[in-house]
TrEMBL record:
<dbReference type="InterPro" id="IPR050469">
    <property type="entry name" value="Diguanylate_Cyclase"/>
</dbReference>
<keyword id="KW-0812">Transmembrane</keyword>
<protein>
    <recommendedName>
        <fullName>GGDEF domain-containing protein</fullName>
    </recommendedName>
</protein>
<dbReference type="Pfam" id="PF00990">
    <property type="entry name" value="GGDEF"/>
</dbReference>
<dbReference type="InterPro" id="IPR043128">
    <property type="entry name" value="Rev_trsase/Diguanyl_cyclase"/>
</dbReference>
<feature type="transmembrane region" description="Helical">
    <location>
        <begin position="145"/>
        <end position="168"/>
    </location>
</feature>
<feature type="transmembrane region" description="Helical">
    <location>
        <begin position="12"/>
        <end position="31"/>
    </location>
</feature>
<feature type="transmembrane region" description="Helical">
    <location>
        <begin position="95"/>
        <end position="113"/>
    </location>
</feature>
<dbReference type="InterPro" id="IPR029787">
    <property type="entry name" value="Nucleotide_cyclase"/>
</dbReference>
<feature type="domain" description="GGDEF">
    <location>
        <begin position="202"/>
        <end position="319"/>
    </location>
</feature>
<feature type="transmembrane region" description="Helical">
    <location>
        <begin position="120"/>
        <end position="139"/>
    </location>
</feature>
<dbReference type="InterPro" id="IPR000160">
    <property type="entry name" value="GGDEF_dom"/>
</dbReference>
<feature type="transmembrane region" description="Helical">
    <location>
        <begin position="43"/>
        <end position="62"/>
    </location>
</feature>
<keyword id="KW-1133">Transmembrane helix</keyword>
<feature type="transmembrane region" description="Helical">
    <location>
        <begin position="69"/>
        <end position="89"/>
    </location>
</feature>
<keyword id="KW-0472">Membrane</keyword>
Amino acid sequence: MPSATAFLRRHDAHSWYITFAAVLMSLTLAVDLLFPDYIEHRALNWALLVITLTSAVTALFLGRRLPRWVGIVAVFIFLVAQAYFLSLADDPQTVISALQQLPIVAFYLGWFVRPRLALPLIALCMAVFGMVMVSNPLFNPEGRIGAPVAVHGLLSLLFCYIAGNYLWRRAKRVDATDALTGALHRAPFFERAAVRLRRRTTPMSLLAIDFDGFKQVNDAHGHAAGDRALETTVSAWRSELRGSDVIGRLGGDEFAILLPDTDRAETSAIVERLQAASTHPWSWGASEYAAGDDLAALLQRADAALYAQKRLKRQVPHG
């Protein structure tokens, strides 16, 4: 149905996670409220239930338009609430419920909150929850819950954060990388190169590359043949380059390679290796960092050298 498809397109991973996590927490709170003989903090549970249900409905309605700060505020509320619940020495059921909900929040922090905020929060959670559980007699070796459960809870918190952080890094890498060649897209390449330039303490060169006769390959053999030429050539480059070198696809058959710790003479030697390993011919131009250069200046000089080489190739008679 078109309406169902449109509804699904309104959502992303963040809105779906908020929706289902809020529903899961709502169910947990509702189950706790079904046993009035055991739970002693019903008002707080009802308040949290209202918050989780409201969060689920809001995320479902707004979809990808849901602001990230909404999730972060909800995380803060639940972390404070869970710290309180974990401190209850006379309510083991509530304590266990709080432990079960910690991984949901930790996974959210890892996946959807940037590390500069998430890492301090996880460290704070580990410290606060650890101290709260140490002070709760239920977690004593002879307590009704026991110390192993406390250790397992903290390890689950840490594991879920690491798993969520892995998914965030993987998604970020996929978004930044050209699916065909594995090179960085234009904007991520510029960002990475700009960071390297700001930290530069040694020689650095930039290589600009343009494939020769690429349009003719596409016209004569189809775009699949052109794609294979790009894919195999960039793969060959990667096998010859160092881990610190950065490859970017600036558009079509235009590429750039940032070469840290490399002067102009060393760049020429690297180019010889790359061309020997390549499956398709290409032209190149290089520039070496000079005092006061920014990335635009480096790329401008490399492009000028590249197009000078291409003009020279066109002037050379074939056959």
